[in-house]
Amino acid sequence: MVQALEIAQTCPSCLATPALTPQCCARCCRVTCQACCPQKPLPPAPFIICASCRLQPVLDRAHQLDAREQSVRKRVLSGLHSAYQVVLGHVKRESTRSNYARGIAALRKFGLELQLVVLPASRDVVIAFAMYELIWQKLDSSTITNHLSAISDYHDYIRQLFQRAHPHESIRFGNPVHNDEVRDLQDTLSSNYKKKSSARQALTIAQGRDMFARGFGQDIRGRHHRISVWLPLLGMLRQRAATMLVVVYRLVPSADGGPPDVVFLPASDIRVAHSEDGGRHIVVNVDVDKNVNALNRRQAYIPDEVSALGLRPVSELLAYLRDARPPSGGYLLASPKSINNKTFRSGRFTGISAAFKRAFRKVYPLDPLVDLIGSHSGRKSLAQWLWNDGHCRRIIADAGGWFLKRDAVDLYFKTAPH
C-alpha cells in the first residue's frame, strides 16, 4: 500500500499524475488523485474503498441482465455510492475535520524536521511529538491533546477501513494513542502545563449599559455596529451564526401616514413576532452553528426591551431596516458600503470583535479588559448574567446552543420564548 502511494501512479479517472496526497484503494491498491476521489471532503487518511470494489460484491450476486440493463444498474449503484460518500463526509463537523487536519499536518511537519517516518505512528513517536510541541513549540496542553486526538482518529479510520476492505482476514492495526503511557502524559499535561486562559471575557451589566449608552455613534454605521454587538449578546449567538443571518423583508406604506411598516417574509432568518399578551419580541432562526443540524435546529428570542442595558432591540431593528435598508435576501449584518447611496457589501461582516472593542474602549479607554474582549464576549456575558440570576444550566445551554448531555426525558422539554 505504501509502495502504491510512493509510485504516484497516473490517476485512472482523469489520466493526471496524483497530487501530493493521493487516495489509495485499500482493496485493489488503485491510486486516485484528490480531484477524482469520490469521498468529499477527503478522509483523514489517504485510503478509501473505491466504487468498483464496493459494488463488485453486490454485482456478483445480482441477477443476470442484458448489457443495457446491466449498464443502467451499474450507473444507479454508482450514483447511490456517490451519495453515500457525500453523507459519509458529514459524520464529523467541519470544525472537527479542520482541527484534525491541522493535527496531522503538525505531525508531518515534525517528521520532516527530524527526518522521521511518523505515519503510521508508534507510541514512542507520539510521545516525542507531544514533548516537541510542549518544549519547542510551547503550545498549550489543550492544543497538544487535540493533535493527539487527530492522530488517534487517523489510525482508527485506517483500522476500520481495512477491516471492511478485507473482512475475512485478521488485521491488527494498533492505535498508538490508546496506551497507558500516552494517557498518563495527557493527564499530566492537562494538570500541570495548562497556560493561563486568554479566552474572551464577559462584561458586567454596568459595563454593558455604559457601553450601549455612550459607545456607538448615531449614524448608520454606528447603528450597524450597535446591532452587530447586541444581536450576538442578547441572542447568545456565535459570530458565524450572527453573520450568516439572512433578512428577507419589504417596506409597505403605513396606514396612518407614518414611517413605512416592515413586513418580514417567511424566508427571513430574523423577524419580529407578537406575543399572546400583545408584546413583541425578535425571533432568530439559527440554521448554521455549532451543535445545529437538521434534527436539532434552534431559535433565539430577544425581548422588546432590556431595561438593564437601556436597549429596545425591536424598535432599533425596525428603525435600522427602514433607514439603512440593507438588501432584502442578503445578510442582515452586511457592512454599509455607501451610506448616501444605501449600498452594502455582499460578504459577511467580519468586524464584530473590532466594533465591540472600539465601543468598550470609547467608554473605558484605560481598562485592560479591552484586550480580552471579542466577538464571543456578548454571549458569555448574557450566560454569566443568567447564571448570577439563578437560572439553571439546562436553560442557559439551551438558549446559547451549548452541548449538554441529556436524558430521554429532556426530549419533552423546550425552552419557552418568555
Layout of secondary structure:
Elements: H1 2-7, E1 23-25, E2 31-32, E3 47-48, H2 51-60, H3 67-88, H4 94-114, H5 123-135, H6 141-165, H7 180-192, H8 205-214, H9 220-235, H10 239-243, E4 246-247, E5 249-252, E6 261-264, E7 270-274, E8 280-286, E9 298-303, H11 313-323, E10 330-331, E11 336-338, E12 343-344, H12 352-363, H13 377-388, H14 393-400
Parallel strand pairs: 1-3
Antiparallel strand pairs: 1-2, 4-10, 5-6, 7-8, 8-9, 11-12
Helix pairs in contact: 2-3, 4-6, 5-6, 8-12, 9-11, 9-12, 9-13, 13-14
Describe this structure in words.
This protein has helices at residues 2-7, 51-60, 67-88, 94-114, 123-135, 141-165, 180-192, 205-214, 220-235, 239-243, 313-323, 352-363, 377-388, 393-400; strands at residues 23-25, 31-32, 47-48, 246-247, 249-252, 261-264, 270-274, 280-286, 298-303, 330-331, 336-338, 343-344. It is mainly alpha-helical. A three-stranded mixed beta sheet has the order 2-1-3, with no helix packed on it. Helix 5 (123-135) runs antiparallel to helix 6, helix 9 (220-235) packs across helix 13 and helix 13 runs antiparallel to helix 14 (393-400). The chain starts with a helix and ends in an 18-residue tail after the last helix.
